[in-house]
Amino acid sequence: MTERTDLRPEAIAVARAELGLTPERMPRHVAIIMDGNGRWAQGRGLSRSAGHAAGGDCVPRIVRESARLGLEVLTLYSFSSENWHRPSNEIDALMRLHAALLRRDRDTVMAHNVRLRHLGRREGLPDELLTEMDISVETSSTNTGMWLNVALNYGGRGELTDAVRHLARDVAAGRLEPDDIQEATIAQALQTVGQSDPDLLVRTAGEQRISNFLLWQISYAELYITETFWPDFDEAQLHKALHAYAGRHRRFGGLNQPTG
Asked: Which architecture, in CATH terms, is 27-155+198-246?
């Protein structure tokens, strides 16, 4: 039985207050580049597959804590379009792992009123994985709480390319005038449609790059990079990232714009 968290607004307010986080200093959307599984495993004399499995075990606790603190959106970068260049045996193991995690974590998604969305292209993903993804998306579609975006076979340039193609088809069909295309029009063609852009982008394992992740959406995201490998990224590490965000001033090109 999956342990349930009290997700009532008053419980969320208490959870935030206990951490010293005020509503105006909380991000609405946190995106995480989950990096370091292989290096975590190597340092322990384990296989890379064992590292990926350990990283998968980290996901439910971050989802639970994010929901408990009232995040509106949590986006996890799980497998990039560039990751297909890895050895085939590692890719096969990752695909099987993702399917198994979707099955395993379905109860957590439902117990925490989470809505799951897949970001990325379906082409190339195994049928078993797509089936499990579709079941989780459909099962959680009537939930009303936090969005959990799983970026799987995802690339920011690919997403923008697909959006441009969509808009080009609308123009060719006479449904859209080129001069009517605004930033909001493009945002509506992205896979994150209807969601706020990330306020905070977290990258684990110390790498200082964004790796083709949410290129449009993170235009004004605050960056938080930790040396902690993803399998060791726990609730306390999430709290550190949230406190770092709370201490910043987001200017959006202006002056003295408060966070939030």
From this structure: 3-Layer(aba) Sandwich (3.40)
